[in-house]
Specification:
single chain; about 350 residues; alpha/beta; GMP Synthetase, Chain A, domain 3; Rossmann fold; eight-stranded mixed sheet; three-stranded mixed sheet; 12 helices; 13 strands; about 35% helix; about 20% strand; binds adenosine-5'-diphosphate; binds magnesium ion
Amino acid sequence: MIDEMFRKALANVRYPGFEVDIVAMDLVEEAGLQGGVAKIKLRAVQAPPQVREDLENAVAAAVMEIPGVKELQLDFPEPPKPKAEEPKGPHPVAGVSAIVPVASGKGGVGKSTVAVNLALGLARQGLKVGLLDLDLYGPSVPIMLGLKDAEPESDGNKLKPIEAHGLKVMSIGFMIPPEKALIWRGPLIMKAVRQLLHEVSWAPLDVLVLDLPPGTGDVQISMTQEVPITGAVVVTTPQDVALVDAVKGVDMFQQTGAPVLGIVENMSYFICSECDARHEIFGHGSVEPLCRKLGVDFLGELPLDTQVRQQADQGRPAVNGDSAASQAYRELAGKIKAKLVKLGAIKEVA
Ligand SMILES: Nc1ncnc2c1ncn2[C@@H]1O[C@H](COP(=O)(O)OP(=O)(O)O)[C@@H](O)[C@H]1O
Ligand SMILES: [Mg+2]
């Protein structure tokens, strides 16, 4: 609360050395009169001692002109000391055994759908699983899990993930609305990725699944700089254009020395609900040879199933159903789990 008389008086006080007044620069947090005492609270800012002193004197002079003011109580706190330098370079997330990003070169290939269903599929197998949505430009995990209005709380130190569907879930979409994401640039993105990985109470987890934005941009770079990757899953559709992008995706991980668990072919075929026939809409069979060429494993095919989309839109993921698609997602989760066990990242659980 800023009293109008105080606002006018303080608008005459310039920040020492600058053209701007302290009201305009939002330095005044509270100002008012209480029984002859002018109480003013300024925002904590880093300022040299001389600047602080000049500013305090200027505020006092301005306020003493206000009728009824006999005394001034000025609160102008020092900002908290910056935290000790955070560790540099990729380092494990405390209490998390395996980190599995789900990536694609192109948007709309089903990355988020795979990430959500993979996370749930792994949880069904008795693993402790977290899902982190890092798709700054189109976070879809909150919708797919019916968590649109979730607001993660802080325990004072770390942010608590939302617990839903047996998973620990965090989304960059919980923190910033997508329309704001467009103005985010390198350093901000880097900070957000670091916080979502290292300043969320994930532990204890066997696997943390990451849903990435499409392509090989800032978020991906930040991720590889922040955490060691256990193994990446690349999603593609059988279309040629998507395959070019899949190569780029695999290449990105290989360049940074991160293992690739394999490529999944999504929307591989369509099972007609009328005639039960299998239709290969996008031309099927191109992903497996590509995998051989790239030297990565083929993780299998997922059918195009209208229910998958409908359920995703309603916050009811497909993996729990009994359709061909549900089964395919569960098989995928089984393969990923086996690979993580083989890599020694997680232990076999009963
Ligand atoms: N196997 C599938 N069958 C039917 N629809 C799918 C399938 N996989 C994804 N979709 C739908 O396609 C759209 C894009 O999928 P999404 O997972 O959001 O892709 P991405 O994260 O790669 O952009 C969504 O509407 C989703 O429900
Ligand atoms: Mg997505």
